[in-house]
Amino acid sequence: MSTQPLTVAEAANVQQVEPSQVAMSDWLSASFPVEDFQTYTSPFGYRGSPTGGYNREFHYGLDLAAPEGSYIRSWWSGEVVEVSDDSNCGTSVVIESGPWLHIYCHMQGYVESDGEGRYMSDRSGGLQIREGQTITAGSRIGRVGMTGRTTGPHLHWGLKYDNSWVDPALVLRAMYASQQTASR
């Protein structure tokens, strides 16, 4: 997983998928990824650099502001395929759910290793998330922090479907529409 900002030339090659093109028969099992959500602070797509300057870069996720320490929930059930704390993404967890990858960045905690492998540890939040661990939708997997390249506390949430980036805001809209239809 690349956590470096994409240049304009690289972003031109990013394949994007519309959620309506994805064969998801049921969005009801999905979970909103952050507790104590306040606002969206940066959308998917081109933006000016948040750390200054005049360059534009491709932002391959959706930033969801929440108070530092707010719990992050797994959007969908799946397997933890990566934990990391050494990139612009800061402390992060990547979960694979069939053809989907969901990426959670700027979390509190850090990565450790033991005889059983690598894991993200957030002792203050009571969390330990291991590579290879199965996670259910809605499970707490971390807390909002300010690790990596960030200007304030938020969750950077990225989604890929069959290795193509998906705008998480479109997924949230599809989830909401599906849940509204089901509640009628």
Write a brief caption for the model:
By secondary structure, the chain is mostly beta strands.
How would you characterize the overall build of this protein?
- With 184 residues, this protein is mainly beta.
- The chain has two helices and 16 strands.
- The protein has helices at 8-11, 168-182; strands spanning 16-17, 39-42, 45-48, 56-59, 62-65, 71-73, 78-84, 91-97, 100-107, 110-114, 117-122, 127-130, 134-135, 140-143, 154-161, 164-166.
- Strands 1, 2, 5, 7, 8, 9, 13, 15 and 16 form a nine-stranded mixed beta sheet that branches. A three-stranded antiparallel beta sheet has the order 10-11-12, with no helix packed on it.
Q: Shape from CA axes?
A: globular
Distance between the termini: 40 Å
Q: Identify the quaternary structure here.
A: single chain
Low-confidence stretches: 1-13
Rg, Å, rounded:
16 Å
The succession of helices and strands, N to C, reads: HEEEEEEEEEEEEEEEEH
Mean pLDDT comes to 84
Structural class from helices and strands? mainly beta
Portion in beta strands: 35-45%
- Share of residues in helices: 10-25%
User: Largest sheet, if any?
Assistant: 9 strands, mixed
Given the structure, what is the number of helices? 2
Number of strands: 16
